[in-house]
Design goal:
Length: about 120
Amino acid sequence: QVEFVESGGGLVQSGGSLRLSCAASRSLLSFTAMGWYREAPGKERERIAEITTNGVPAYAESVKGRFTISRGNSKNSLFLQMNDLTPEDTGIYYCNGKLGDSWLASAYKGQGTQVTVSS
């Protein structure tokens, strides 16, 4: 059972920045990819960023050019730098790992980290 602990969320004004962190209970190298998901009020959970073990990132159109996903020097850390935030970025953010072709369903049982962007 792997656990992810997210942190770094908060309340920020539109145009501001936040840096989210994720600490995994085991090395991220054991996953084929790592990602960040967002649960926005009234919307389906959305994968907004992912990075492969080779370091290749991919982003949802809604965050492209504003968010940057990265892995830390510690093999258990994942980050999401979020710039130029808008109220549409409000939501609970979770990190998740992909094993083979599947993302872990258990990743959303944690609290995630709340991001609230005021206009």
